[in-house]
Design brief:
Length: 408
C-alpha cells in the first residue's frame, strides 16, 4: 500500500511538471470598420521583448491558421543562428479568404468566378492593413518601420497585386506559389511603365513556386520572374532586390515552410558581413583597427537602410577570432573585443570573448575577471550552455594556480 502511494505521489509530481505550457504567442482581436467585422490576430513576440527597449521589424502573415507556428519557429531559429534580427509576427486569421485576397478582375473565367464565390475585395483588405491593422500594431508594440508581408497561394496573388498597386506599403514581400492563374489586370504591361522611377524602388521581393503543373500559373510566375530580373538588370540605379526560388520537390501546401525560412534569410542577407579570415585580407582593409572601423561603419549604414539597429556583435566576434589565429596580429583581438563590449555591454558573450583574448596574450587575471562576469551574467538566463562558461572560469583558475606554483 505504501509503495503504491509512493508511486502515485511521483506520478502526480511528474504530471504537475508536464503541464507547463510552451507558449509561442498570443491572440488578439481588432474590429475593422472597413471590413465591418472582427479579425482574429496571432502575435509572436521575440523572446526578450518584455525585458528590452528595442524596436522590431514586423512580418504580416496571411493565412495564419496554417503558417503561424512554423513561421514563428523559423524566425526564432534564424535569429539563434544569427541569420536575421528578431522580428514580430502578426498572423491574420481568415474570415472570407477568397473575398480579401483577390482583386476584382473582368478577365476572370466565369467558371472560376462561380467557384470562388465572394471575390474582389483586395482593395478593401489593403485599406484595412494600411489604415487599421498597421496603426494598431504600431501603437501597441515597439515596432520598427520595416514591414514584411508573407502570402501563400491566393495570399501570394494578393502580394503581387499589392506590390504593383502600392509597392511602398511593405519593404519586403515573401510570395509563395502565387495563384497567378487568377488574372491581375495590367501586371504584364511592363515594369518600366508601372514603375517609371527605378531609383525610388528599394523593396525586396522573394518568390517561390511548388510543383505546380496545371493551367497557366507556372508560366505566369516564370514570366513575372523574368520581368523582375529584366527591370533590375536594365536599371542599375534601382534598389529593388528580387529572387525567384523554384521548389519543385514541394507540394502547393508544403512549400510554405521552406519559403518563409529562406525568404527571411534572403530579406536580411545584406545584414551578413563578409568575413576577412586571412592576414592579407585584414591588412588590405588598412589593418586591424581599420577593419574594426569598417565593421562599425557598415552596420551603421545597414541599420539606416532597414530603419532599426542591426547588431554588429557577430561580425566583431568573427574578426576577433580571426586575429587570434594570426600570431603577430593576436594582440589586436583585445581591441576588437573591447569595441564589442563597448557596443554590447549587456552581452555575456562580449565579456567571454574579451576574456579569451586576454588569455591568448597571457594576461590571465584579466581573462579570469571577464570570464567570471560572463558566467554570472549567463547564470541569470536560461542558456543551456552555461556549463561552457563555468569551464572557462575553472580552466583559467587552474592556469593561474599552475603559474603561481611554478614560481615557487
Amino acid at each position: 500500500m505504501k509503495f503504491n502511494l509512493f508511486i502515485g505521489l511521483i506520478l502526480i509530481s511528474l504530471s504537475t511538471y508536464a503541464q507547463e505550457p510552451i507558449t509561442i504567442g498570443h491572440t488578439a482581436t481588432i474590429h475593422s470598420q472597413i471590413l465591418d467585422e472582427d479579425r482574429l490576430l496571432e502575435i509572436y513576440l521575440p523572446k526578450d521583448y518584455d525585458t528590452s527597449n528595442k524596436t522590431y521589424p514586423v512580418m504580416y502573415l496571411l493565412d495564419s491558421f496554417l503558417n503561424f507556428r512554423h513561421a514563428a519557429a523559423s524566425a526564432e531559429f534564424l535569429y539563434f543562428d544569427q541569420r536575421i534580427p528578431e522580428i514580430i509576427i502578426v498572423g491574420i486569421r481568415n474570415t472570407h479568404r477568397n473575398r480579401d485576397l483577390t482583386p476584382e478582375s473582368p478577365n476572370l473565367d466565369p467558371k472560376n468566378r462561380e467557384r470562388l464565390g465572394n471575390i474582389g475585395g483586395a482593395d478593401n483588405f489593403i485599406a484595412f492593413l494600411e489604415n487599421e491593422l498597421m496603426p494598431h500594431i504600431e501603437n501597441t508594440y515597439r515596432t520598427a518601420p520595416y514591414k514584411i508581408i508573407s502570402g501563400h497561394s491566393l495570399g501570394g496573388l494578393f502580394n503581387v497585386y499589392s506590390f504593383f498597386k502600392h509597392p511602398e506599403l511593405f519593404n519586403a514581400y515573401i510570395t509563395i506559389s502565387p495563384s497567378l492563374w487568377y488574372p491581375i489586370d495590367n501586371i504584364f504591361n511592363g515594369f518600366d511603365t508601372i514603375f517609371p522611377n527605378p531609383s525610388k524602388m528599394n523593396q525586396t521581393f522573394y518568390m517561390t513556386l511548388a510543383n505546380e503543373i496545371s493551367g497557366n500559373m507556372r508560366g505566369n510566375v516564370i514570366k513575372l520572374s523574368g520581368d523582375f530580373e529584366n527591370y533590375i538588370n536594365t536599371n542599375k540605379d534601382t534598389g529593388l532586390r528580387f529572387k525567384y526560388n523554384p521548389m519543385p520537390e514541394e507540394s502547393h501546401l508544403s512549400v510554405g515552410l521552406p519559403s518563409i525560412f529562406f525568404g527571411l534569410r534572403y530579406i536580411f542577407e545584406p545584414t551578413q558581413y563578409k568575413r576577412s579570415k586571412t592576414k592579407a585580407a585584414i591588412m588590405a582593409q588598412g589593418g586591424p583597427k581599420k577593419a574594426i572601423e569598417n565593421i562599425v561603419t557598415y552596420f551603421n549604414e545597414v541599420s539606416k537602410t532597414y530603419g532599426f539597429e542591426i547588431s554588429n556583435e557577430s561580425a566583431l566576434i568573427d574578426l576577433g577570432y580571426d586575429l587570434i589565429k594570426i600570431e603577430d596580429l593576436k594582440p589586436y583581438a583585445v581591441d576588437v573585443f573591447k569595441a564589442n563590449l563597448e557596443a554590447h555591454p549587456d552581452s555575456y558573450d562580449a565579456y567571454s570573448m574579451l576574456g579569451m583574448a586576454y588569455e591568448n596574450i597571457g594576461e590571465l587575471q584579466k581573462a579570469k575577471d571577464n570570464y567570471k562576469i560572463a558566467l554570472n551574467m549567463v547564470m541569470k538566463t536560461d542558456n543551456f550552455e552555461w556549463e561552457a562558461y563555468k569551464t572557462d572560469v575553472d580552466k583559467i583558475e587552474n592556469k593561474i594556480k599552475a603559474k603561481t606554483d611554478n614560481k615557487h
